[in-house]
Write a structure and sequence with these properties.
Length: 149
């Protein structure tokens, strides 16, 4: 519980520093944001999350299950990120992102197979549309032909 309060205080302190610096850059207006607009919003969010961390009650004491370790999940998460970096060009954005999300959701987060596949397919497709159609970001095509927008 003490660590939550310390981390929350540090988050609020850092948010205050980022907020002051972003204000000096100029926030602008809602219709024409300045260079400090997004950093200020991030600082406000960070301060709110820090305050929530300080205010929440501590976790109930529990004994860890025998043999249960979060290192295996961490290793799987790290391995899939390494796979993603290596497979992005040959497989392409859509396939590599789908595989990354399935593994992350199924083995790291423990979601069901059905939920992992559905969420991964939707997230990969939606992010592809956002990056290609709206943001005009060139993405690796790989083995699947991607539509031209």
């Amino acid at each position: 519980m003490l660590i939550d309060r310390v981390l929350g205080s540090v988050a609020i302190l850092l948010a205050a520093i980022v907020g002051v610096v972003s204000w000096r850059y100029g926030v602008g207006a809602a219709s024409l944001p300045g260079p400090g607009f997004w950093p200020l919003l991030i600082a406000l969010s960070m301060a709110g999350l820090g305050a929530a961390l300080m205010a929440r009650p501590g976790p109930a004491p529990s004994s860890p299950a025998a043999g249960a370790s979060r290192w295996e999940r961490f290793a799987v998460a790290l391995g899939t990120l390494a796979f993603y970096v290596l497979a992005l060009e040959p497989l392409g954005y859509l396939a590599a992102t789908f595989v990354l999300l399935v593994v992350q959701l199924r083995w790291v987060e423990g979601r069901s197979w059905r939920g992992s596949f559905l969420t991964s397919a939707l997230a990969a497709a939606i992010s592809l549309i956002v990056f290609r159609a709206f943001l005009n970001v060139p993405l690796p095509q790989g083995m699947l032909p991607l539509p031209r927008w």
